[in-house]
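Task card 7
Instruction: Convert sequence to structure tokens.
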Amino acid sequence: MVDSSEGRVSSRRENSVVRVSFSGGLLGVLFGSYRGRLEKAISEQNRKGWHVVEVIPDTLNFSLVFVRLVLLICTLGLWTLSSSLIVIFERERRREEEAEPEMGGRVPGLVARR
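Output:
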């Protein structure tokens, strides 16, 4: 976005990337729900003020397929890694006083004690 008063580029949005992973094998078929996991991840981020911009499916490569096959054989078909989705979220940039502390952030007034 271009700020017309000063002619410089400014951004009023910030982005977040979340990977939603699924499990495969017999356990993934019986207890896994693609829709349920995706809805849970999206609703959690929506509560924090984020909105979905794009969903990107995971790409496969030979080494990942090989690892999945080995895991499936070792667990006798019960469990393996499955595909995942990369979900990109966006929200309006908030002022510092309105912002919630993110994980790992410093919260004023809290002191670690031993």
